[in-house]
Amino acid sequence: MSTYNLTEAIGSGPFVEYVQFHIDNLAGRDPLTVRQQAWARYRDLVSGLNEQQLITPEKPDKWSIAGVFRHLADTELTFVYRMKLACVVDRPEVPPVSADDWAKALDYWNLDPHRAISAYHAQAEDTAAWYASLREKLRRREFVHSEMGPQSVALGFHILSSHDELHLKQVARIRQAVL
Questions:
Q1: What gap in Å lies between CA 143 and CA 47, rounded to an integer?
Q2: Which of 25, 47, 69, 88 is paired with 37 by a 20 to 30 Å CA distance?
Q3: Helix (H, G, I), strand (E, B) or coil at 112
Q4: 74, 116 contact by CB (below 8 A)
Q5: Residue 1 has what pLDDT?
Q6: Residue from 168, 173, 80, 68 nearest 124 by CA
Q7: CB 120 within 8 A of CB 71
Q8: What's the mean pLDDT in 60-71?
Q9: In the predicted model, is pLDDT for residue 2 greater than 60?
Q10: What DSSP designation does 148 have?
Q11: How far apart are CA 69 and CA 54, in angstroms?
Q12: By mean pLDDT, which of 16-25, 41-50, 137-146, 157-166 is the weakest?
C-alpha cells in the first residue's frame, strides 16, 4: 500500500468534495487491491448474460452493461494517459472529459458488447500491473486537471479504483433489471 497521504494531496480546489468522496468510497482499502479484484467481480456479474441482456439499458436513456464497459475502457485510457504523462512531463495540463459526451459521440449504444468487456479487462489488468511496478517517487508526480487542479498519479489511481467500485454497483443493478 502506498505511504502517500492522499488526504493531504487533495488541497483546497473546487472539487475537494469529489475527491474526498472517492477517497472515502474505498474506505481505507488499498486501491491496487481493489483494482486487482475488480475484474473477477465484473466477470461474475456478466457471466451467463446473453448479448441482448448486455446491450439492454437499465431504463430508457440509461446505459447498458456494454455501455458501462465501454465507458470503463475509455476512462481507463483517459486516466492512464494522464498518469503516464505526469510521470514524464512536469505537471502537464489535462482537459476535462464528459462521460455522457463520450457516450453520445462514440455511440456506446451500438457496439459489440464482448469487445467492450474485453477492452476494459485488458486495459484494467495492464494499468494495475503498471501501477504495481511504479516507484513511490513517480506516484507523487502530478498532472493539472483544468477544472480540478493538481492531482498526483497516486490520487488519479485511487479515483480510478473508486470509479470501478461505483460501476460494479451499477452493473449489478443493470443485471437485475435485464434478467
A1: 37
A2: 88
A3: coil
A4: no
A5: 41
A6: 80
A7: no
A8: 94
A9: no
A10: T
A11: 10
A12: 16-25
The CA distances from residue 1 to 18, 45, 158, in Å, are 22, 27, 11
Three-state secondary structure call for residue 145: strand
Q: What is the DSSP letter of 28?
A: T
Arch. (CATH architecture) of 6-178: Up-down Bundle (1.20)
Write down the pLDDT at residue 14: 62
Grid coordinates given for 127: 494499468
3-state class (DSSP) for residue 129: helix
Match 513511490 to its residue by C-alpha cell: 136
Dist CA 78 CA 178 (whole Å): 29
Could you report the per-residue pLDDT of 141-150, keeping only the tens digit for each?
Answer: 999 998 888 8
77-113 pLDDT, tens digit per residue, is 999 999 999 999 999 999 999 999 999 999 988 889 9
**Contact in structure between 88 and 142 (CB atoms under 8 Å):** no
> 172: burial class by Cβ within 10 Å (0-12, 13-18, 19+)?
middle
Q: Is the distance from CB of 178 to CB of 53 less than 8 angstroms?
A: yes
Helix 153-178 / helix 16-25 crossing angle, nearest 10 deg: 70
Strand ranges for 24-158 from DSSP E:
93-94, 142-145, 149-152
Across residues 121-140, what is the average pLDDT?
96
Rounded-to-integer distance, Cα 7 and Cα 33, Å:
19
